[in-house]
Design brief:
Four copies of one chain form a homotetramer. By secondary structure, chain A is of the alpha/beta class. Helices cover 35% and strands 20% of the residues of chain A. In chain A, helix 5 links the parallel strand 4 and strand 5. The two termini of chain A are 33 Å apart. Chains in contact: A-B, A-C, A-D, B-C, B-D, C-D. Chains B and C meet through helix 1 and helix 11 of B and helix 1 and helix 11 of C.
Chain lengths: 376, 376, 376, 376
């Protein structure tokens, strides 16, 4: 694996490296970690990388690695830069024959997203988008239960992603994570919408297996001088007639990382909270509340195989993230042997397109005073 | 106290009686419990009432009691009938000099609601609407914390009231509670909206001290052949610029009585769940999560006085309901002595008007595909 | 019902009155509420009792009521005094033909306890001991599940009752509840042991249907100058070979009323917490965790009939307490008609004897450095 | 790092490898993974190790590595075998100049434990015992709060470690994890006592900073034909006068990995549950309940530095385990530079001795019908 972005000040770069390393299947062999050559090389040195594989920029890395012998060069690229720096390296990597792991949201525009989608199709290369929450065992159990019809037809959904870290103007204090996220040239047209709203959108579509058809969005800009949304409330309608609400925020004071979902079907319902990820609560017409646990009793295989340690031994954010990498690496290995997995269990370039369509629909709806707007 | 409705098949009549009796301040002295004289008298007999004060209908009761000596006749009327039978007895009681306790939603129409409001003003009589949740000690603590500015300016709200008991067509099985609630001639233009949506609306306005300015409602009719909503998702905007979501349902399979609220201010936030009513969770910019408990440490007096037993000894639905009656009875006593409480702590006829305005706004918004609609 | 004790300063008197009144089956008709005639009459007046039935002392009450016409006199006596004042009025009431409700622990000595037990047998009168926790619906569900063999043979038990209100020397501040509880002349030989340890002992025997055979107790006296225990840790062994721990405390700083029990059988286990009484968590060899709720799905009739309102509407301490009174009152009514309930569902004089035996065994064990001591 | 044990059938070997790898500070360079040379080499191959560093047995590994150039040879040995195979390799490693990481319980006998302790002293080498739970950020916060006196003098402790996986005779089904644990030649004189009781003992001493002075143990052997305990209930007394209970079990049906601790001081108390490790609940004399979260507000530095990702992003078992390795690796690095950390934050050989003393005291107490027995 070669990494683009994720230098010393980055939070998410380290997460990607830990996640990729967890199962001993992926080795970091090179990187272009920062916007300056100097910083990039310093970061690489800290990571015990050989000097000659700490590149000044992503273009240099892609070209150089391409020319290395097959058994030496990186197998794929992981792009962990701010949003505005996803598209170019992803495109160049694909054009030069490298599989891609890319952070979300995938691009700044729908056109870019579709261009990547077409490139993936035309090259036959693999592309993973690092929505990490689908990597959680209990999320996989939720998805499997609905897919097997245990809840019956889905009628109602609630999804929320609540954080409070932008409740004050931290972007004015030099906090790097905050400053690029509130800057539309780096973040795109969505603020919290792109940063965490897309996680909510992805999670609800992943678990239910349903697509959001249209939405009515009321976005908020509560932080002083903010030009991008830092809060949003959205009505959603699904293709099958189900309805629901989505709520996200980065000004929900005191919330840490409160991603949660409830799904109600005709026969049963389920509830999952990211902050206590090892439990999945289900409720029923005519049975008591039943709580599934990671690696516990009566799970579907999809959920069981996503755990590494016995039930009761909590796994968390990094382990879910690592499942995305693990499943992607497995696919890369299968690909190396000339085969292909039909339905790989990690978010793909198609999920990336959905995410950008979601952002654009929500922003457009908000501009029209929350008028219903289709995702397309 | 004289009771109208609440005969043998009623659920809520018994709740009102237990709540009214809890503090030994209110005695049930007469009633017109059912739609037929016979059933009414049988119900009264079961309640150990003297025969002559078990009336055939509410008109008879009001006239007869009016003519009893001052120290014998009922002090006030409690109306616990289905929605369509609130207005007439409430109006007649007020016109004949009786204070009124009335179940919610107050009336079927805004005009009726305003007529009662005017009657209360012109007669100077007391009127309590039995939204019981404001009677919960931790709800009072929540209201007090916000009123004292502890959370700072309110920015975001989530409120939900989720039940699952109408997930199947129980109204077709002869279940009496269900059958009148899905019948617009008895329930009014709102289904779940009137039955529990109004609780959510009342709770959020009570706690925040803010009024909902406008809403965008997407109602659902998921049950077979239902003509009234059994589910709803609503965007709300408050007069002060705060935004939020409301979600209610009676088809949320497996949910029992999941009323919950979250309020986010600039400095802190709070969260309360009716099913575990003795805890109030608060979160802060710069302090750890703090959980207040009923009759526990550091409460405001408004919350402390709402508990009857030491902290850790759970009080629930009936005790909260009883607080509405207790505060009303205290006011009646003050009134008997010729005085008046400035801000009595129970929902009043004004809350009743708000509730009906809320129902009408939501139904109108839903008809207009969730267009923003003001409460008025 | 006539009440002995429970005057104006009392906490538990008011609890008894509210519990007795809840179902409209029991009326307070007289009382000897305090140690002085004056206070007793003042208390009675506050309770709207007629002057002539506010007695100066319990002897006067029992004699006077005995001589009233059958349809006027009290049906039974409720004794809600501190521990040292249970035996004499209970004995006198029984000797004069009155059924008795008595607070726990029943007496100060085993001899007294056995004397009451014999009196109950010889008179055929009814006797309820107000351990209230067996009145909780989920406790009844727990008992029923074990009785029906759902958990298999019981192997292990944990029970705890943790409070913190005596963590400081509140008895020196004039707090009346504290001062008599730390005084052996009023409390007996057990402090926290008698006050709450007996609740734990009763709960574990009620739920499991097993008797504690022997125990090894390590009591603590942490509060300054305390002569009675305010904390205890006990190993317990049951007649069937099961083992376990009991822990109780009134110096567990910050705990409110944390009574909790876990029972492990060969096939499953259960867990109940008094502070969230409407849930019963069960765990299984080969099924996911299942949580029963009051008045919810799949309950045994014993549990269902103990709820008054729909699932999701929390009932608490008073409602559980009221179930003891309700079941006792039902039995009194059956008795009035000349019949008798075989296994009445409220704690009886036999539970009272067990409680005192438990106190004595624990104190003796503690004196012998936690040597194993049988209950007898 | 070179690994002894942890071959293909092992659970804990993989845990150690993932934990050691997490922070990119430790590289697995060699191993003697199994009891047979063939299996060992196969395991090493799966781990991408060069053939010549997959050794046939630990003796070969220690000798061979000792003779490698300084910059090639392993820095330390990780011993992850069943209990009976800890002592010999640990001793040999120390005698040949290698630092040691060793699984718990450290040895089979007190004599062995003390021999290792002396070797560590005499050689000046580093020794980490992998009790992983002290690696949890909230455990470190708990320890720091007590060390800083926030809870006041400690009076009461509850600690439990409940599992249910041996509730049936799984050792008879060929389950390898079970079969060695119930075999005294491999496990030592303690069953569940050694396997998880020692975790409880270590946790309570780590958090409180107090030593258990004496204990009274009632062990159980509930599983058919078991010769070692699979359950235990223990009274404990601390050197400072505090008292408490310990309960552990591997036949607590349905429990997964329920390690939990409560500590009560004169001013406050705390509660931590391993299954929800990112919360630390604290309760106070005169403040509401306060819940600290990993990487959240108001933590001590010791707790803050133990988190890798932002608050609300759950870290679990592996991350806590990795903290033991990280702190050990930091110490190894400091040592390489000729220095030494005064109070390294990982369990050491002294904790290993405590653990074995605890096992022997508990077994002896149990043989004497739970007589008080000192740890020594």
């Amino acid at each position: 694996m070669g990494m683009i972005g994720g230098g010393m000040d980055s939070f998410i770069g380290d997460v990607h490296r830990k996640a990729a390393a967890m199962d001993g299947m992926i080795e970091l062999v090179c990187g272009a970690f920062s916007s300056t050559a100097e910083k990039s090389k310093a970061s690489g040195k800290n990571l015990f990388l050989p000097k000659n594989r700490c590149y000044s920029n992503f273009e240099e890395m892609i070209i150089s690695e391409k020319n290395l012998p097959e058994n030496e060069k990186m197998d794929f690229v992981a792009i962990v830069t701010p949003n505005h720096m996803h598209f170019s390296p992803a495109k160049m990597a694909l054009e030069n024959g490298f599989h891609v792991v890319c952070d979300k949201p995938m691009t700044l525009t729908i056109a870019e997203a579709k261009e990547l989608e077409e490139l993936v199709t035309s090259t036959g290369l693999l592309f993973a988008l690092t929505h990490n929450y689908p990597g959680s065992p209990m999320v996989k159990q939720a998805k499997a239960m609905i897919a097997h019809g245990e809840l019956g037809k889905i009628r109602k959904v609630q999804v929320q992603y609540l954080q409070g870290w932008l409740a004050t103007s931290v972007e004015k204090t030099g906090q790097k994570q905050a400053s690029w996220r509130v800057d539309p040239t780096k973040s795109g047209i969505g603020g919290a919408l792109g940063d965490i709203g897309t996680h909510a959108e992805n999670l609800v579509e992943y678990i239910t297996g349903l697509q959001i058809k249209e939405l009515a969005a009321d976005l908020g800009k509560f932080g002083k001088d903010r030009v991008l949304d830092d809060d949003g409330n959205i009505l959603i309608r699904f293709e099958n007639g189900a309805k629901g609400t989505m709520s996200f925020s980065q000004i929900a004071t005191g919330e840490e990382n409160n991603l949660a979902i409830r799904v109600y079907g005709e026969k049963g319902s389920l509830e999952w909270h990211q902050e206590t990820p090892n439990e999945l609560v289900t409720r029923w017409l005519d049975k008591p509340k039943t709580t599934y646990t990671s690696n516990g009793n009566n799970l579907f295989p999809e959920a069981l195989t996503a755990s590494r340690i016995p039930s009761g031994h909590p796994e968390g954010y990094l382990e879910a993230f690592a499942n995305v990498y693990k499943n992607f690496a497995l696919h890369v290995n299968v690909k190396l042997q000339g085969n292909r997995i039909e339905n790989p269990d990690y978010p793909t370039v198609n999920d990336g397109v959905r995410g950008i369509q979601f952002i654009y629909a929500a922003v457009q709806s908000d501009k029209n005073n929350a008028a219903w707007t289709s995702l397309k």
